[in-house]
Design brief:
four-stranded mixed β-sheet, alpha+beta, about 20% strand
Length: about 230
């Protein structure tokens, strides 16, 4: 389908998303961050109990070049490389610092050639899972499983000027802060609880950050054993 229905959670109604606006240190850099799920947009709008809005848009995606970080040949390591290039990672060990540099060198796609990016949303819990992998605390397989915990959702990001020219405001739905702030919190807590159980399981045969550095693994060498 060439027409996408997207939702953007915010404390305000946004009829005209502005190209070039937004925070620099978002998951995939500057862009307009959306989801295909109304309920998730309402949760994202309610970082506080005051409530907000799920803004609805139609996007003519015909001909737009899309990077889907969840589809082959891309792997979670590509997602992590993008994340580390845009978010503020503070490595706590030499291994973590070298690991982040290695991922950016060999796994970082050129985002400038894409109009849309689809991938996981690195909220606080997902970001902590990524840090655990870079710190060699969990395996690549465990990170893969962790990103499905709590059903925290994926996002679609409009990055190019062409993509912004294709988006049209289509109304909004109010998000009750007393409801969706709690839902957001419960979803995050569920993901963290399940992650703690996952992290306590030994993965003797898994691929860890140390293995990637030691064996100089490249994208073609990575096979996730989910």
């Amino acid at each position: 389908m060439s027409t996408l229905t997207l939702w953007h959670g915010s404390v305000r109604i946004i009829e005209r998303p502005v190209y070039g606006a937004g925070k620099t240190y978002n998951d995939y850099g500057k862009g307009f961050y959306c989801t295909e799920h109304e309920e998730l947009a309402k949760e994202w709008a309610c970082a506080e109990k005051n409530g907000g809005y799920a803004n609805r848009y139609k996007v003519d995606a015909a001909g737009l070049k899309t990077l889907d970080l969840q589809d082959p040949p891309f792997t979670i390591l590509h997602w992590l490389a993008v994340l580390s290039a845009n978010r503020r990672f503070q490595p706590e060990t030499a291994l973590a610092a070298q690991g982040l540099a290695y991922l950016r060198e060999y796994f970082l796609p050129n985002l400038d050639q894409y109009d849309l990016i689809r991938g996981y949303r690195a909220d606080d819990s997902y970001f902590s899972f990524a840090r655990a992998f870079v710190g060699n605390a969990i395996s690549l397989d465990q990170l893969s499983k962790a990103l499905y915990l709590g059903e925290l959702g994926e996002q679609i990001v409009l990055r190019s000027k062409t993509a912004f020219e294709r988006i049209r405001f289509d109304g909004y739905e109010p998000a009750d802060g007393s409801i969706y702030y709690l839902k957001r919190k419960q979803r995050d807590e569920a993901a963290r609880s399940q992650y703690r159980q996952l992290a306590m399981q030994m993965d003797l045969d898994g691929i860890f950050m140390r293995d990637i550095l030691r064996d100089r693994l490249r994208p073609e060498d990575i096979v996730l054993r989910v």
